[in-house]
Amino acid sequence: WSVDNNGYLYYPLDRGEIKFIRENYDETENLAISKVIFESTRGNVYGLLVLPKSAADLLPGVVLLPGAGFGKESELELAKKIAELNVAVLTIDQRGVGETNGNFPTLDDDYASFLKGQEPYQHIMVYDALRAYDLLHSAPFINPGKIIIVGESLGGRIAIIAAAIDKNVKGVLVISSAGLGFKGGNDTNKDAFLNSIDSDHYINLITPRKLVMIHNLNDKNIPVSSVVNSYSKAQEPKQFVLVNDTSCSHGYCDGMY
């Protein structure tokens, strides 16, 4: 990994063969759910893979990234809804959440690691998303040219950065998320670090692939104005979807379906 002078995070496009374990987890009438464990940097990542039981063609794929502090199980219902559309969905535990190891540090601690030349956790989560993409890309039942990354809140930021790094990702769906709105300062090292984890810094690199941002008017965590600001930095093709769901304060809302 590296971060250039302009604050762009870099990971290689050829990340090597991905090693994983897959075991049965659950099933419904139409879906099969597996637990997967795959290798990433500094340990294994744990996920749930949701597949339709029957499909005539190769499946499109979705990497589904939860928000901060939420594990793969919290995304399972949404993963099922997407899978019912004849899509393969892989959702993961972010670092320090659920079964994926790590102790998610404060931003200051992550920056201290960055200054020492150690890989920050904010960057590791991007790499985990890329390895989740690699896992779907290598699956024999997936159409490798039709894999997108979907993220909620923090997961939305990670999704944009990961897709900006790897142009093979087909597109991005962002749910209840916005960039950091970082405007820069006088410390070049801090500027490089903050830019490297700010999705606003990368969002214009998604084009010519599709970007969709979905947000709730009543979101208590991220104001609509922040999302509109992030969306304005993106290039076409893009779409902004605003829902008015009074029963939901943040994250995926039923009105978004």
Describe the structure concisely.
The protein is an alpha/beta fold. It has 6 helices and 11 strands.
Which segments are poorly predicted (pLDDT under 50) over 5 or more consecutive residues?
A: none
Provide the succession of SSEs.
Answer: EEEEEEHEHHEHEHEHE
Sheet-strand content, in percent, reads 25-35%
Q: Going across the major beta sheet, what is the strand order?
A: 3-4-5-7-6-8-9-10-11
Largest sheet: 9 strands, mixed
Measured as a percent range, the helix fraction is 25-40%
Cα distance spanning the termini: 36 Å
Number of strands: 11
Total helical segments: 6
Fold topology:
Layout: E1 2-3, E2 9-10, E3 20-27, E4 31-40, E5 43-52, E6 59-65, H1 76-83, E7 88-92, H2 107-115, H3 121-138, E8 142-152, H4 154-165, E9 171-175, H5 188-196, E10 210-216, H6 224-233, E11 238-243
Parallel strand pairs: 6-7, 6-8, 8-9, 9-10, 10-11
Antiparallel strand pairs: 1-2, 3-4, 4-5, 5-7
Overall description:
There is one protein chain. The chain is an alpha/beta fold. The protein is 26% helix and 28% strand. It is built from 6 helices and 11 strands. Helix 5 links the parallel strand 9 (171-175) and strand 10 (210-216). 43% of the residues are buried. The model has no long low-confidence stretch (mean pLDDT 96).
Features:
257 residues, alpha/beta, nine-stranded mixed β-sheet, 6 helices, 11 strands, globular
